[in-house]
């Protein structure tokens, strides 16, 4: 079988081309789909001759698709009645559609997440090894939250406590679980993990780039539209002064967070600060948005017996 039209032309110019060309013609026309096309439309010899390049393209592309199921294009034959010949139309394959869908959704976790510590990229529930009853309780809390989100629960989730207690690990584990589970189920979702400190640093560096990767507009759109979003280490971008007092967040930071959160209904937060400190940083209005829907979805990584409490009790 010819691999291309140019192969057919070279073949045609050979001394014994006539006889062998007829053999190839018969071989092409005996292809089930080609044969059906000819019979269905009662093609004349002239119409068949005018359609041979389309038949060759069709068979060649089908062979490529058989060899590589993830090939970008499939092909179909279409009879142009008004012109009297058949054309081969390349069409996007289902595999390609799924790949594009994955790229636009589940692949964003690795491509668009903003990490301050690359090690967190590999965090999963399986790699979280609890040391004692409290960490085991934290693991179960995160697993239950992930399962709730999987089956349609909405609302924010807050994990607060001292640094180094596993909050970021479990937050990444939640969205990694959601991302992989939805992808395996064929229900593609977008999940992102974003270090708040790193986010604002990159955005500041892109102030002069209206269309840059970390421009305010692009980051607002990406964060607002993600199905599941982790904002990690909230408050660290503002921090405390030299006397240990919580500082007020800049108007720019506060405005950006407000725009993102007003467009969302499900966001996972980790922070080293309690509710009172966050209110001093961002004001009551933004903090209310942060805590929205978090009743029963708050875990304190410290020595407090009742880990699931209303945020105003934190």
Automatic annotation (TrEMBL):
SUPFAM superfamilies reported in the protein's UniProt record: P-loop containing nucleoside triphosphate hydrolases
Pfam families according to UniProt: Bac_DnaA, DnaI_N
SMART domains (UniProt xref): AAA
PANTHER family for the chain: ATP-BINDING PROTEIN RV3427C IN INSERTION SEQUENCE-RELATED, CHROMOSOMAL REPLICATION INITIATOR PROTEIN DNAA
Protein name as annotated: AAA+ ATPase domain-containing protein
Domain AAA+ ATPase: 153-301
Gene Ontology terms: biological process: DNA replication
């Amino acid at each position: 079988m010819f691999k291309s039209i140019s192969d057919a032309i070279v073949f045609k110019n050979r001394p014994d081309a006539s006889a062998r060309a007829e053999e190839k013609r018969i071989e092409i026309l005996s292809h089930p789909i080609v044969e059906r096309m000819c019979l269905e439309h009662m093609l004349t010899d002239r119409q068949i001759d005018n359609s041979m390049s389309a038949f060759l393209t069709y068979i060649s592309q089908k062979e490529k698709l058989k060899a590589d199921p993830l090939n970008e294009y499939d092909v179909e034959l279409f009879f142009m009645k008004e012109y009297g010949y058949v054309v081969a139309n390349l069409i996007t394959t289902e595999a390609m559609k799924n790949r594009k869908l994955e790229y636009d959704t589940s692949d964003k976790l690795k491509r668009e997440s903003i990490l301050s510590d690359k090690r967190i990229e590999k965090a999963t529930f399986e790699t979280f090894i609890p040391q004692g009853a409290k960490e085991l309780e934290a693991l179960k809390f995160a697993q239950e939250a992930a399962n709730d989100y999987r089956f349609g629960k909405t609302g924010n989730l807050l994990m607060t406590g001292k640094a180094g207690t596993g909050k970021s690990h479990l937050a990444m584990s939640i969205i990694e679980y959601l991302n992989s589970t939805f992808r395996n189920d064929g229900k593609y979702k977008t999940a992102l993990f974003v270090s708040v400190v790193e986010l604002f640093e990159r955005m500041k560096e892109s102030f002069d780039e209206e269309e840059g990767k970390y421009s305010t507009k692009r980051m607002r759109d990406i964060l607002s539209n993600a199905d599941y979003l982790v904002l990690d280490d909230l408050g660290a971008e503002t921090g405390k002064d030299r006397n240990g007092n919580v500082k007020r967040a800049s108007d720019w930071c506060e405005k950006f967070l407000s725009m993102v959160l007003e467009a969302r209904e499900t966001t996972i937060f980790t922070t080293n600060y309690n509710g009172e400190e966050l209110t001093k940083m961002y004001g009551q209005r933004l903090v209310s948005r942060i805590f929205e829907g978090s009743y029963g979805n708050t875990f304190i990584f410290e020595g407090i017996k009742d880990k699931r409490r209303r945020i105003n009790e934190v």
